[in-house]
Amino acid sequence: MIESANVGLIYGTDTSNTEEVGERICEEFAKHGIHVQMVNVTEASSAVIEQFDLIIMGIPTWDFGGIQQDWEEFEPELLVTNLQGKTAALYGLGDQFGYGDYFLDAMGWLYERLLKTKAWMIGYWPTEGYDFSASLATIQQGSLFCGLAIDEDQQFDLTDKRIHSWVNQIIGEFKQACAA
Ligand SMILES: Cc1cc2nc3c(=O)[nH]c(=O)nc-3n(C[C@H](O)[C@H](O)[C@H](O)COP(=O)(O)O)c2cc1C
């Protein structure tokens, strides 16, 4: 039962966009009767993350493919986090026109590290509808992002629609993962 699942959203942010998008993701879950606990990565630990059944992580990319600082500092803790048997999904924020050679690179960085925690990953998202040259956050020959791609700088008008579809998608995928 997803309504009784423990769902957490861990985010890092420099200028609040990733936090605000996180709040909108939580609101979308609330429409399904699901409470999501938001945790700033500066307040997170392995123990905090391991208590959740479904873990959503949000990260923006900064300075030409750079990792948001709080997430970078959290890396050692993340690498000793054990999420075997847990499900995880990612969302990333970036600017596809301003930084089209590094679009959402930090989400790709976080994806690689999450795989090491043995979490079951859901929430892959099509690259169609975005315009960029290169990204470390794509998989399957560039057809998918490793998580939800949000661009508040250039495509803010699409954010609500994207969040709505993605939350529906991950709820369905989480149910399937629980049934498997
Ligand atoms: C100086 C600067 C560097 C940036 N570098 C990148 C980048 O390399 N790749 C990218 O996709 N977005 C880049 N961005 C866009 C940010 O990721 C985007 O504005 C994001 O919404 C910020 O999220 P935050 O408010 O949660 O920190 C950059 C923005 C600025 C101002």
In summary, what is this structure?
The protein is of the alpha/beta class. The protein has one domain (2-179): Rossmann fold, CATH 3.40.50. It has 5 helices and 10 strands.
Please, how many domains?
1
CATH homologous superfamily identity:
Flavodoxin domain
Return the CATH topology. Answer: Rossmann fold
The helicity comes to 25-40%
Bound ions, cofactors and other small molecules, one mention each:
flavin mononucleotide
Major sheet, described briefly?
7 strands, mixed
Separation, N- and C-terminal Cα atoms: 13 Å
Q: Sketch the topology as an H/E string, one letter per element.
A: EHEHEEHEHEEEEEH
Q: What structural class should be given to the helix and strand makeup? A: alpha/beta
> For the record, what CATH class applies?
Alpha Beta
Compute the CA-based radius of gyration: 15 Å
